[in-house]
User: Fold this.
Amino acid sequence: MTARGAARGAARASALVALGACCFGSISVLTVVGTRDGTSLSTLLAWRYLPGALLLLLVAPPSRARLPLGQAARLLVLGGAGQAAVSFVSLSALRWIPAGALGFLFYTYPTWVAVLAVVRRTEHVDRRRVAALALSFGGIALMVGSPWAAPLPWQGVALALAAAFGYALYVPYLHRIESETTPAVASTYVTAGAGLAFLGAAIADGTFGVAFAPATWAAVAGLALLCTFVAFLAFLRGLATLGPVRTAIVSTVEPFWTSVLGVALLGQPLSATTLVGGALIGTAVLLLQLPTRERAAA
Assistant:
């Protein structure tokens, strides 16, 4: 592939990752809408993941959808349960710390992805990527604010950082399992596993049901179609080209999108720091698209 073709491919992959991040960034807003009528979080997420898995199955190649038992189990248990576990751990932190502090702490995960890549020697992290990481991290810090303005309980900080570190382990794992099959097939199994986990939780706590308000059903539709079907396909297809480090950095457009959507659907204010933070993240994404200069031969 020529350098120009590789650059175009990276730009397309970055656009897919950004699309997936925006879809994922819609989850919190749609969750607020979906739980206003008293629907439990586990029930809402079960209705998000299970129909999403069925939608993904429709686009999965039939010849590759049937996987060997061991591979299917890894995707369902490790992929699906891992997805559910990260969500559970991060949301549990809200018992002790505010959402802004959780957002700041959780979005340290690109740093952990880069650190793990260096330790494992699986990917080269050059100065440009370090600069992009610093810009994106600074943008997030501006948007959600510093969590150290007031003392934070160590339990919430520990849970938020554990979720960030767990997600940093999860992204490279997704990269590996996606290479064994297609993005649609991998997404189908992962979302089905997460859906079954939340379904079991909802049944166990006695909250599972179908008697929802129209707004909740609209939120369920958005969560299943956009935040699961579109999000997973776009994210995994972009991940296959960019690799874990660049994918993690591009994904930091997510909190900016969440802020914009919060203005549109929930009437939340959009501050100047949010706009500046979004500009820093956009700069980081653009920096990743610049061609690498190679040293001329002597």
